[in-house]
Amino acid sequence: MKAARLGCVKYLNARPLIRGWPVPVTFDHPSALCAQLARGDLDIALVSSFELLRNPLYRVVDGLSISSDGPVYSVVVAHRGNISEVEEIELDPASETSANLLRCLLAEGRTPRSTGCQPVTPGSLPATSSQVHAFTAASRQTAEMAKPTAGAPQIHPRLLIGDQAIRFRHEHENEFSFWDLGEAWKQLVDLPFVYALWLVRPEVADASSIANKLRALCDANLRNIDILTAQQTDFPREFCHRYWSENIRFSFGEKGKAGLRTFADLCARHGLLPNREPVLRLV
Questions:
Q1: Which of 225, 230, 181, 159 is nearest to 68 (CA)?
Q2: Distance from C-alpha of 39 to C-alpha of 42, rounded to nearest angstrom
Q3: What confidence tier does 80 reach under pLDDT thresholds 50, 70, 90?
Q4: Share of the chain above pLDDT 70, in %
């Protein structure tokens, strides 16, 4: 039987879910993986939860996710000074889940407490990533964001996700304030937020077998978290251990499912999704 073609987000938060998978895996940004999964270039992919809410044709590997139940650390709005008069927040087009989480939080009147700013109305945020000032992890704009220029206008706050957010926080911790969207979500609804799920195309015949192997792999990695941490070279090992143990949740239980349904409800309320009950076909 031909091996299933797996895709996975190329971020630190996903390593306990995929480290040790026995066949090659396609690593990419969430939006690119969503497109490959939709075209049938991948059979299974760890992608943005918003993709499931938008295209409910997929099955979901039960029990696994990338979630947070409080501060997530790696999904933040970076800003300087008072942002009370800002009319837009520049979005990272790599993840529609985080961008739409931001839209929902702003629409519900949630803003960084430390700035004392007034809510930015949803209408002031572009509706799609094609309408924002797009940037990538290596973009010149992000580098310039870190360079204060005397007399220059205030730079728009920016949504940063994944490894880019971690690196930016480590390099510019004392220069910026960071609004953690995982923490804001927890304060709003008191439920976990689900950023990514393993989605399975409907024609994959052995989905249950693959799902079992993915669950077993994650369990093994989490049991041996010290070994996994010792293998990391991109970030300090102490940070990796704390990040995986305190910020990221890898389960997808009843509270996570309730959080996902609540996110779908808010997206529908604010015109980001059709008003329909999320379909969870679990394997």
A1: 181
A2: 8
A3: confident
A4: 81
Residues paired with residue 159 on neighbouring β-strands, in sequence order: 77
Q: Which residues pair with 46 in a beta bridge?
A: 8, 198
Q: pTM of this prediction?
A: 0.85
The angle formed by the CA atoms of residues 183, 64 and 103, to the nearest 5 degrees, is 35
CA dihedral sign, ordered 186, 157, 49, 248: negative
- Which of 189, 209, 238 is the C-terminal boundary of a domain? 189
Phi, psi angle pair for 193, to nearest 5°: -110, 130
pLDDT at res. 157:
85
> Hey, what are 10's tokens?
């190329």
Same domain, 53 and 105: no
Distance separating alpha carbons of residues 99 and 15, to the nearest angstrom: 23
**pLDDT at 194 > cutoff 90:** yes
For the chain, how many structural domains are there in total? 2
**Whole-angstrom Cα distance, residue 235 to residue 148?**
26
Return the higher-pLDDT residue of 211 and 131: 211
Domain that holds residue 130: 75-189
pLDDT at 120: 38
Structure token digits, residue 237: 């090992």
CB 90 within 8 A of CB 191: no
